[in-house]
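Fold it.
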Amino acid sequence: MLALGPMDFVMARGLDEALAARDAAPGSELLAGGTDLMVEVNLAQHRPSSVVSLRHAPELRVLESRRIGAGVTWATLERSEYRALAQAARTVGSPQIRAAGTLGGNIGTASPAGDGLPWLAALDASIEVASHTRGTRLVPWSEFFRGVKQTSLADDEIVTAAVLPADMPAHQEFAKIGPRSAMVISVVSAVVMRWENGTTRVALGSVAPTPLRACAAEEMISAEANPSDAALAEFARMVAAEVSPITDQRATADYRRHAAGVLARRLLERCLAA
């Protein structure tokens, strides 16, 4: 049983106050929706000594065309213009979870199964972080996620937004595999994007320590203006070859590898048919 000690709690009234509190107590836990942190606290698996609440920081809830605030909830994102992200948002959990959970929580937790992370990876998005003393910086997604629940976020920083590129795909699709279609941790998740010029990107979750781009498969299929069945089969094979999954209580590594290829091909076929 985890010993319960005292806990400092700061209800920040705005981003500046949150950054100041984080600076005063480096490494303090950040609370937005609480859909990850409070589970650990309620199960007595984790007892933070300091918590900074971001629930009253309206700056984090701003949704713009190329910038998604870290406090934007899944309930908002499921109605957004970003098709694949909206598809992912609808699978995150119950309506109550979607109303509380945020994209920033997904980013900060950095779980390999984070439903929003493959979408950010496929777009080559950047993560905006801020510090009370050093200001704001942009971190490419590939540098931000360092391992299972490990990021490059400094102890005095807060994730403030996901920043998107100007060049958005013509078609994008998301899907995940699990024991059921929603309210479940993914066994495999994938996003496929295709631009009008044929450029194709595929990013996957739950098949590596961090979100993974299948770069070799992308290069091959991007050269195909109208992919044949043989090209689609080779694309699926290459995607499966690029992942590095583990075996756990939800699935074997072999199943995840096979599923990654099948899922990527199905999503690409949807993009091509759109």
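The first strand starts at residue 8 and ends at 11.
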